[in-house]
Amino acid sequence: MDSSSSSQPEFDYLFKLLMIGDSGVGKSSLLLRFTLDSFEDLSPTIGVDFKVKMVTLGGKKLKLAIWDTAGQERFRTLTSSYYRGAQGIIMVYDVTRRETFTNLSDVWAREIDLYSTNQDCIKMLVGNKVDKESERAVTKKEGLDVARGYGCLFLECSAKTRVNVEQCFEELVLKILDTPSLCAEGSAGVKKNIFKQKPAQADASTSSCC
Amino acid sequence: MQCSYDRRGNSVPTILLLMQRRLYEQGGLRAEGIFRINAENSQEEHLREQLNDGVVPEGIDVHCLAGLIKAWFRELPTGVLDSLSSEQVMQCQTEEECGRLARLLPPTEAALLDWAINLMADVVQEEEQNKMNARNVATVFAPNMTQMADPLTALMYAVQVMNFLRMLILRTLKERRESAVEDAAVSGADPSDEDGHQSPQMHLAACSEEATERAHVAEEAVSDSLPRIATEEEEEEAARSSHDDAAFFSENAAGSSTGHEVHTKTGRSSSQNHRKGRKAKRESTDRASLPAEKLKGSSIVSRINSKIEGVEAWR
After folding, report:
1. CA dihedral in degrees (B49, B51, B54, B55; nearest 10)?
2. Which one has a higher pLDDT value, A140 or A48?
3. Among the four A2, A200, B1, B251, which has the fewest Cβ within 10 Å?
4. Residue whose C-alpha is closest to residue A153's, from A65, A83, A80, A91
């Protein structure tokens, strides 16, 4: 126990990221591509899946805990409890299936409003499956417009061809690193000394906000 | 809620059979990711309203139909598998054990499960096209078959239920393969010949329908067993009876506390229909024919009449 405080921390920040979107848009495939750089036919996710990836970005060692949620409707009540405390939310749709795009506004954006506890949480809209260009049903401009409307980041990618997959996560994380309140939450020190830190945080907030 | 018999003699709500029929007619079984993919939310809500008004519109997205079939199970007052304990489900490791456990369900739930498993097996038979293997289709159905207050327990249990469903699907597929072999061996008289004299129109409709299907026990039987609208009278009746199905979602939601009650809670004409169904089932065993007036009320029943023999033959 004593040694842990003196040794080099495993990471500088721990961020919780969440992936949401309709069933079959490729959430798990994106995660698999990002974490293990592979691609295969995946079964539907049961409830939630969870993967960790260490990355170094902007000179910081980051531990990303990525929660991959099931798109199946029944699991929505369950997955809503995973929105809590996320610093980043990736909303995924399939560029070849228009309904996955419209459902993001109809269903998923509402879920975020209801369940996300983090006001500053960074959101990112991701259009997957751009490898199927001939079947495209949602234009890039439409994606951009919606993203602008929600004030979130936007990228189009393909888990299959790996185009833009890393960029999705990187852009999101860089934006989180740019947001002091989120960095504070994710800082390794905060997590370790959660009880000791509390009064200190209270002091900080009083001094900084007024 | 009105019930009808499926090809295996399961009494299930007519609305499920109607949705299943549409799904199959529109090539839903071959649609990639069928039962996995969500339909457009607004379309699903719209279709719900129409179904509750007694209308089954044309040209619905197959994913919307599939989604509503799952929703029907999900929104029952109690899950179809809720009468089984999680320990029982967890202990089932083989197809035989799962089959034995399924037989412990009350009659209504057993019929619904059997219908659903056969639907899933139909999906898996088209796996090459739809990419839905037994595991995939079981995974997307599992959370809809039970209801649990605690989400975490529900999540862990969903895995067990998925395995349970998967076993039952694989078992059904095995039975189908075996019976297909047997059928080939005794391929002789068409069982539906028997009731040809009662309702030639319907018989023709059924035959032509069958002719367009592949000579596959499972596929042929499904379309055959569903309510077929052949005459004007029957069309009227179908319109009326589908009206009885009206508000099937809201009925569920408002509904009674057990699945069994949902099943028996019926309108006037539907309970009549149900009795006829029972009667027909009995009569079919001694191959008696139904008088024409009875047929008017329930096109399904006569179809079942001929079909039950078929079903029993390959069971």
Report:
1. 100
2. A140
3. A2
4. A91
Q: What is the mean pLDDT of residues A41-70?
A: 93
Mean pLDDT by 10 residues, chain B (315 residues): 86 93 96 94 90 86 95 94 93 94 96 97 97 96 88 84 97 93 67 39 39 36 39 43 47 40 38 41 40 38 36 31
- B151 closest CB neighbour out of A24, A44, A81: A81
DSSP H or E segment with residue A66: strand A60-69
- For B8, other C-beta atoms within 10 Å of its C-beta total 22
pLDDT score recorded for residue B140: 95
Residue numbers of B between 9 and 68 with CB closer than 8 Å to A: 33, 36-43, 63, 67
pLDDT more than 70, % of chain B = 59
Vertex B273 angle, CA B272 and B275, to 5°: 65
Chain B residues whose beta carbon lies within 8 Å of the beta carbon of residue A75: 143, 155
Is residue B225 a contact partner of residue B307, using CB atoms and an 8 Å limit? Answer: yes
B31: helix, strand or coil: coil
- Structure confidence by residue, pLDDT tens digits, A64-105: 999 999 998 888 877 778 888 899 999 999 999 999 999 998
Bigger pLDDT: A135 vs B294: A135
Which residue pairs, CB below 8 angstroms and at least 24 apart, start in B85-89? B86/B157, B86/B160, B89/B157, B89/B160, B89/B161, B89/B164
What's the predicted TM-score (pTM) here? 0.71
For tokens 């560029």, the residue is A95
Residue type for A104, please? Answer: L
The answer to whether residue B142 neighbours chain A at the CB level (below 8 Å) is yes
Q: How far away is chain A from the Cα of B140, in angstroms, using its nearest Cα?
A: 7
Cα-based angle A74, A79, A81 (whole degrees, multiple of 5):
130
Nearest CA to B138 out of B166, B99, B159, B115 is that of: B166
Helical axes B134-141 vs B62-74, angle rounded to 10°: 50
Structure tokens at B240: 């009326």
Question: For residue A193, what pLDDT is reported?
Answer: 45
Q: Which two tokens stand for residue B141?
A: 């159905």
**Closest Cβ opposite residue B158 in set A47, A73, A102:** A47
Q: Distance between CA B124 and CA B128 in Å, rounded?
A: 8
pLDDT bin (cut points 50, 70, 90) of residue A124 is: very high
| Of A20, A30, A17, nearest in space to A164 by CA | A30
CB contact under 8 A, A46 and B158: yes
Question: Using an 8 Å Cβ cutoff, are B155 and B107 in contact?
Answer: no
